[in-house]
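Worked example 2:
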Amino acid sequence: MEKDFSQVNFRVNCSGSWANLVTVKQDDYEATKKALADLARMHRGSIRFKAMDAEGGVIEEYSSVPPAGIPLWHEPKRRG
């Protein structure tokens, strides 16, 4: 079964729990990532985002990446 990328849900975490932020069509995916990265640069404090496909699978995350600690969009860490 193929994953459904017709829409992407972005979630935000800035206080310890994830909240739905916005759901966009696939055509708006890259523009939304850029807008959220711009918003993160203006935010006072840490903030994380994740993009999820229609089935709830994580596509990408926006967070600080060691060792430099620079926030950017990256593939999610695989657990397990």
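The chain has a mean pLDDT of 90. The chain has one helix and five strands.
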